[in-house]
Amino acid sequence: MNSEELKKRFKVFALRIIKLSNRLPNDLTGQTIAKQIIRSGTSPGANYRAACLGKSDKDFLNKLKIVEEELDETLYWLELIIEAELLKSASLDDLVKENQELLKIIVSLIRTMKKKLNQGMN
Questions:
Q1: Can you tell me the distance from the alpha carbon of 7 to that of 52, in angstroms, rounded to the nearest whole number?
Q2: Is a pLDDT exceeding 60 seen at residue 76?
Q3: What's the distance, CA 86 to chain centroid?
Q4: CB neighbour list of residue 105: distance below 8 Å, 6 or more residues apart
Q5: Closest CA to 80 of 14, 19, 25
Q6: The domain containing residue 96 runs over which residues?
Q7: ∠ Cα 92 95 98 (to 5°)
Q8: Long-range Cβ pairs for the range 54-63 (8 Å, 24+)
């Protein structure tokens, strides 16, 4: 998968998160989690785009780590939504799966970049 395809995938993911947040209950719990998941769920795409503009491999790696953290946080909020039964689990299965797949891709990119940086130091 090239960087342009991944950017598109992150944007679609962010849009899905926004739509999910609009389905959460209009109470204190729902609105609090909605704000959190919108922030963490839209951030990976923006940070990945920033990573692609990185000034160096080290800068790219650092921004990828932010993407990883935000994806992990989004997964946490999705798990809370499911476990608190704010939305039906079945309606979130595809979104959780996409979150996990994006996380795996980013972790793989991080590993590859770390290897590249370590080889450059030898």
A1: 9
A2: yes
A3: 21
A4: 1, 6
A5: 25
A6: 3-121
A7: 150
A8: 57/113, 57/116, 57/117, 57/120, 58/117, 60/113, 61/110, 61/113, 61/114, 61/117
User: Which residues does 3 contact at the CB level (< 8 Å), separation at least 6?
Assistant: 52
What pLDDT, on the 0 to 100 scale, is given for residue 1?
77
Domain count, the chain: 1
Q: Are 50 and 3 in contact (CB under 8 A)?
A: no
Q: CATH code at 111?
A: 1.20.1440.60
39: left (phi over 0), alpha (psi -120 to 50) or beta: alpha
pLDDT in tens, 20-68: 999 999 999 999 999 999 999 999 999 999 999 988 999 999 999 999 9
Contact (Cβ atoms closer than 8 angstroms) between residue 78 and residue 95: yes
Instruction: Output the 3-class SS for 47-90.
Output: HHHHHHCCCCHHHHHHHHHHHHHHHHHHHHHHHHHHHCCCCCHH
CB 61 within 8 A of CB 110: yes
